[in-house]
Design goal:
Layout: E1 8-9, E2 20-21, H1 22-26, H2 44-53, H3 61-81, H4 87-97, E3 102-104, H5 112-127, E4 131-135, H6 138-154, E5 162-165, H7 171-182, E6 188-192, H8 194-199, E7 210-214, H9 216-219, H10 224-232, H11 239-256, H12 259-276, E8 282-286, H13 299-305, E9 319-325, H14 330-341, E10 345-349, H15 354-367, E11 372-374, H16 380-388, E12 393-397, H17 403-406, E13 416-420, E14 424-430, H18 436-446, H19 452-466, H20 473-485, H21 491-510, H22 513-522, E15 526-530, E16 533-539, H23 541-549, E17 554-555, E18 558-559, E19 562-568, H24 571-584, E20 591-592, H25 595-616, E21 629-635, H26 638-645, E22 652-656, E23 659-666, E24 669-675, E25 681-683, E26 692-695, E27 698-705, E28 707-709, E29 715-716, E30 730-732, H27 733-746, E31 749-752, H28 758-771, E32 778-780, H29 788-796, H30 803-831, H31 842-857, E33 859-867, E34 872-876, H32 881-889, E35 894-907, H33 915-926, H34 930-942, H35 958-970, H36 998-1006, H37 1018-1034, E36 1039-1050, E37 1053-1065, E38 1084-1097, H38 1104-1113, H39 1122-1131, E39 1135-1138, E40 1141-1144, H40 1146-1163, ...
Parallel strand pairs: 1-27, 3-8, 4-6, 4-7, 5-6, 7-8, 9-19, 9-20, 10-12, 10-13, 11-12, 13-19, 21-24, 21-31, 31-32
Antiparallel strand pairs: 1-2, 14-16, 15-16, 17-18, 22-23, 23-24, 25-27, 26-27, 28-29, 28-30, 33-34, 33-38, 35-36, 35-38, 36-37, 39-40
Amino acid sequence: MGESTRIIFEELCPNCGGSIDDSRLKTVGVCRNCLPIPASNLSPSNVAEALRRTKKLREYRIIAEVEEFMEKFREIFTKATGFKPWALQEVWARRVFHKENFTIVAPTGIGKTMFCIVVALFLVKHENSRCYLMLPSSILVEQVSERAINMAGKIDLPIDCIVYYHAGMTKNQREEALKKIESKDYKLLITTDRFLIDRMDSLSGTRFDYIFVDDVDSFLKSPKNIDKVISLLGFDPKIIDTVMRLVEVKKRLISQGSSDLLAEYEELKKEVMKERQKEHGRLVVTGATLRPRKTKRIYIFSELLGFELGTKPEFIRNIVDFYLRLDSDLEEKTVQLVKKHGSGALILVPSALGRNYARKLAEKLKESGIKTYFYEVMEEDILEKFSRGEYDVLVGISTSRSPLARGIDLPERIRYAVFVGVPRREIKIGKEEENPNKIYALLTNIVEALDEPLKIEALKIIQKLKNVVPVPRDIVTKIQESFENGTRLEGYAGYIQQIIEQSRKLLKKIITPEFLDKIAKETDTLVNLLDDGFSLIIPDTLGYIQASGRTSRLYAGGISKGASILLVDDLKTFTGLTKRLRVILDEFEWVEYSEEEAERVFKEVDYDRQLIKDILAGKIVLPQKDIMKMALMIVESPTKAKTFASFFGRPYKREVDGVHVYETSTPNLILQIAASMGHVTELSLTHGFDGILEEDGRYIPVFSPIRKCNKCGYQFVESNKCPSCGSEDVSSKRDIINGLRKIALEVNEVYIATDPDAEGEKIAYDIYSSLIPYNRNIYRLEFHEVTRRALTHALNNKSKISIPLVESQLVRRIEDRWLGFELSRKLWDRFKIKTLSAGRVQTPVLGWIIERYRENKNKKTLLYIVLENGLEVVFENPSTLELILDKYKHGELKALVKDVREEVTEVQPLPPYTTDSLLKDAFTQLGLPVTEVMKLAQDLFESGLITYHRTDATTVSSVGLNVAKEYIETMNLGVSTPRTYWKEGAHECIRPVKPIDVNKLSQYIRIGLIKPSAKLTTSHLRLYDLIFRRFIASQLPSAKVLVQRYKVVVNGLEVDVDKNVEIIEPGFNKVFSIIRAGRRVTEGEYNIKHIEVKKIPAAWLYSEGDIIALMKDRGIGRPSTYSRIIQILFDRGYVFEKKGRLIPTNKGLSVYSYLKEHFGDYVSEEVTRQLESTMDRIEAGELDYQQVLRELRRQVEEIRTIKVEA
């Protein structure tokens, strides 16, 4: 075992599935039993050859076979094309090797079609496969077939194995081709997708090993093409109906959730899975669909083939967003801009202005000599004409549903977009509105401006509407007719009718001129009164992003430059649009239009357009470098995976051996994002000394893949039977590791993005060690917030795993095991209860609770006195209590207020939250238990709403300062006062990641502008509000307070009083209130209005928040362990909670007494604090972790020798 060995992993040898240490995984790649040679870096082919010679080659075969496959593929590709495949093309080739169905979404010019041609020829030559290339047009069939024949000659493949069919062939050529197709006298078929509609009978009985569909949108014009392809791949045609039924039942199951539906769903799913497991051909689809939900048959891809169709990334943009305040009318300015900047423009009119206005504008442009087409409906030849320059501009509507916004992908042609007015939607709502979809849109946009009673009523109606919208048109019509006829509906329609009636009553109460003014001031929407109702005007954020996005597309050279020019005709809506754009697009900024700046930008725009044209025409061969790569990014949770994947548009999903993977594109990378589902391994129970082996004076822990009982949820290792309930329905993290290994084998690089702390580093190291034989390019990414900005920064600053952090976590885990097990055994022997446990941290914490419990039994006397001026004073343990009470009884008691002086003091805001302060405040102010707070904070973090929540740093980054500054300025809260609260270390405070308060967050979630990956509850929002207000307050000016200081004397007893009596300058206090002002007093003698004597505990029992503050102050535990330690005390039955206070149980008292008496030297607060300090030194690389383990082992041996009578 080499010096670098730190861990032995059970079941993770890539060859035999046995035990292997981390050093072998990083070097040889297989265990010593498989290949008993010293650790050294060998290529996969060398390792495979050595295993073959000893007849031990098993699962490692896959690694070697991929390498052999890729060597052959590179050779064929280079011969066929004259250059080596790009990194992305190699990834796709590996997927072909794995016999996967998949979709290829990649930039224009990256070589998707070229790849399909070469890989089809490769499969024909090396695997005798039958392949089918399906293209969108006859021109492409002609071009591709010529290329394929040319390449076949270069790789010594008989050209007569290729058959093609297209409209440009002569009649005799087509007939000859059909004969060969019908007789199956070919290996590669090339046709248009139209061939499936016109000539499917000629393919009767043909089964293809691979079908490549180029341009999925063309293919989907006939949804039945999906059925035909499924048949050609060798599936039983009846399975289509089964899948359609499965999709329908699944949809009903989600909404209704009955046991009968569940049983039917499981039966159908079993039938589909049975068909999936049979041997079939494979489907590769290239290109992204612009209409992903056009047909229900789209679900066949996910349910039967295990992947979704891809969509173009909408949020990758390289656009200069110009705005121009109007100095003339809209139409005239549009004409001027088009004449200035030329052809290749999209002209977009807000839907609020309507189609008639757009049509009128198109006519104006035509009259001005600009070749214009009003793009109202999708006509097939219009885009071709526009692409060829027969039209200069296309005019359309700037909504996200417009064909111009989502149906065009012409990076070589579209140069810029002009928005003729601020993109906005107008929804007209009648006074007696009957359409629930319209009512829902109105209420969700105005609810935040309502005062509390009406707001609560509106939120209840919104929740009801949310469960039913969008309501189908036929039901809306039915409801409208019932209102006209004065009839009552029953069932589902009747339920919606009731909601509409409730909504109408509410709207009559709230839609007043005064409220409309309030909406205009407090929200980014506008409501206008009309004669027959009112209209709601909403900024169309997605419409702007999608339409402007047509001007900037991914291509082989990066992201093309685009320009967008917005003509501002409505300042209020423009301001609202800007706010919403900044929610979706980090650091979005407008640039004021000027001819000089526009000229500079358009030079860049035109340079990129020419480059794209030259690449597509084959005039330019880009340098042989990998412009784009594909990487696997591994996070801990599916929530975080989904959040990251959504940053650049709607991701598509696929499943790899049970692992769900999201695929998305960044400007220079395609990311596969998957979740490890937390820790993947846990310390063994059966090896060495409590799971740790000793070898040559070194301690090496043995970790095994975690197993989980699917019946009761219990987690364990090293057994296929649940120790808790006995069930054999068990899943293993080894399955997740195997799935990640398969993906790692495909991609160019692997990024591990687990949480940025010692625990996250250990998870990262386990994953790294597991995957390194499958991919040598593995990097660590660190995020302190889940945002697109943070992702981009992390990708540009990849690092290696911190070994000192890993070693520190190993010491923590081994110490917990050794000391915990040894002390637990002592407890078991003493108390005969196997569920008892002890630990280095939990024991002193239990001691604090017990100590405070005992102090609580002692009482002290408080004398409360209320003066006639309302002033309250308290005397503790008054020495003359009886005399005071007697005087009060006889009306003789007076109080003297003297030495009154006033001064103005400055009160600084509290720093932003750290883990301990958040847990304490969330408990005291919101009444939330610490374990729940950590879960809520985790959801907020993973949904991209707050920074990392396990931190002891108050530091505010420059990004955080800007978040606060923007919010403070937008809300007119005063002057931003930047404070960094700097603390050494890489971590940052807990803060919001966007300048959005809880009201705006709630609104943006309701209208769909923000879509959190986790379902947010009221508790989530309350916690977010607490974090947000505390952070914003930390960046506001200090408060100035007038304080009175004086003495109060009662019967010789004297007490000093400091009272805030006036808030002169509220500063931060108006956002996060910690200062309250009382009434002023004047000197003099006062009568006593009321007296009360109370016996109270000498010390109050601790709350969970108090304990966490103590742990922080006394240097015990870490932010990642605070809540866990308290939970252990609850789980073991050592403490319980009553009215928010912690009380030790008899069991807890007995256990602590026993541990303190016999093992106090090992579990004392001081020893625990010293160990935490030792961990810090290991993390800093100042201490050898093995030296610490040797000392811990010595301590454990001492504990073993201590004999205590049972």
